[in-house]
Amino acid sequence: MSAPDDGPVTQSRDTSPEIEALQVARWRAMEPWEKIALVSDLQRAGDNAAIVGILLRHPAATTAEVRLRLAALKYGRNFMTRYFDWDPDVHGW
Question: Which pTM does this prediction carry?
Fold first, then answer.
């Protein structure tokens, strides 16, 4: 037996179906380069937020250490130990 249809379901409970429809229409209308730029900007913002967290936990970290810790957060311990011989469980995340 199927559940009753409560109407459109949005991706986020705090967004109305009408607004979500406008958002999806805008994404569909974007040129490929616009989508790439948007994703790139979001990735950069995420990296910057992670770097702030790294610097809060490790205020004396060098630029190289920050890069290693960021890579560890993004790619995980196995990747870091295999390709960089750097274990975030030992050195800290």
Answer: 0.73
In sequence order, what DSSP letters do the residues of 13-63 get, joined into one string?
TTS-HHHHHHHHHHHHHS-HHHHHHHHHHHHHHHHHHHHHHHHHH-TT--H
Hey, is 93 helix, strand or coil? coil
Q: How does pLDDT run along the chain (93 residues), one tens digit per residue?
A: 556 666 667 788 888 889 999 999 999 999 999 999 999 999 999 999 999 999 999 999 999 999 999 999 999 999 999 999 999 999 988
DSSP state for residue 61 in the 8-state scheme: -
For residue 54, count other CB atoms closer than 10 A to its CB.
21
Residues contacting 30, CB < 8 A, separation 6+: 38
Whole-number Cα distances in Å, 41 to 16, 35, 71:
25, 10, 18
Tokens of 54: 């790294």
